[in-house]
Amino acid sequence: MEKASASSPAGDLPERRFSGRLSDDYELWRLAHPFLGEVHEAVIDAVRSFTRARNRSLRALDIGMGMGDGAITGLLLADIQLSVTGIDNEPKMTKKARELLATHLASGRLEVVLDDALHFLTKQPSHAFDIIASGWVLHNLIDDYRVRLYDEIWRVLAPSGLFVNADKYAQTVEAHGEALRWQLDRFFDVFVPRQRYDLLREWVLHYVEDEAADRVMVEADAITRLNDLGFSDVRIAYRRHMDAVLIAHKPWAHR
């Protein structure tokens, strides 16, 4: 999980929102998401449905792979049809991923790349990947960066390709407010008994920053943008509180 940058390929410095304590103690974030297994099952279902219909080897990209194991890259690698490229802009994360996924690296099924998401995508040829996936990354991005990233995802995804994103999508103001309060309560439940008040402060601030008008990722806006690009069957396949799994398909006709 990259918690990605807001840089541009023009050379802006990347915003590495996970370069401090949050990347060191990321496992506690998982404990504050008791339904994470359900999210992963929704991603697995989308990927398996896609690969079962295609009797060939396929190429997958994980934008913001984090530590890889137990996250989106790990889910992709569980499907033997897939070769996977994982990118992240945080050196601590890619270092840990290389350690945890050394077997897959040695087999040639996995490539780990330290890079900014948009910079990486702009260097790829059109139609380079059959699946582009991500987990809790895109909501970290400033709006204009995210729009440019969607453009590159569309270009780099192969015809009939799959885009799947497990992430924080804001609904209506009232529903989103209730979901945010629920999630902040879970952080208190996890961090206070462990006396990790430093992490509690960091995570609460992180989630509050995500509410900025130029950063918050609204579900309806994301669906509209993907539809405008030409994606079909854009929908939320799963939701619990703030977190959802969005899937979209690139039609075969768009070569």
What descriptors fit this protein?
7 strands; globular; Rossmann fold; 255 residues; 21% strand; 11 helices; single chain; alpha/beta
Q: What's the level 1 CATH class?
A: Alpha Beta
Low-confidence stretches: 1-14
- CATH topology value: Rossmann fold
How would you classify the helix and strand content by structural class? alpha/beta
Q: How confident overall, as mean pLDDT?
A: 90
Radius of gyration of CA atoms, rounded to a whole number: 17 Å
The fourth-level CATH homologous superfamily is Vaccinia Virus protein VP39
The backbone outline, from C-alpha atoms, is: globular
* Separate helix tally: 11
Question: How many angstroms separate the termini?
Answer: 30 Å
The largest sheet has its strands arranged as 3-2-1-4-5-7-6
Layout of secondary structure:
Blueprint: H1 21-24, H2 26-31, H3 36-52, E1 58-63, H4 72-77, E2 82-88, H5 91-100, H6 102-107, E3 110-114, H7 117-122, E4 129-135, H8 143-156, E5 157-168, H9 173-191, H10 197-209, H11 219-229, E6 232-240, E7 243-249
Parallel strand pairs: 1-2, 1-4, 2-3, 4-5
Antiparallel strand pairs: 5-7, 6-7
Helix pairs in contact: 9-10
Structure write-up:
- The protein has one domain: Rossmann fold.
- The longest helix has 19 residues.
- The chain has a seven-stranded mixed sheet with strand order 3-2-1-4-5-7-6, sandwiched between helices.
- The chain is built from eleven helices and seven strands.
- The two termini are about 30 Å apart.
- It is of the alpha/beta class and about 260 residues long.
- The N terminus is likely disordered.
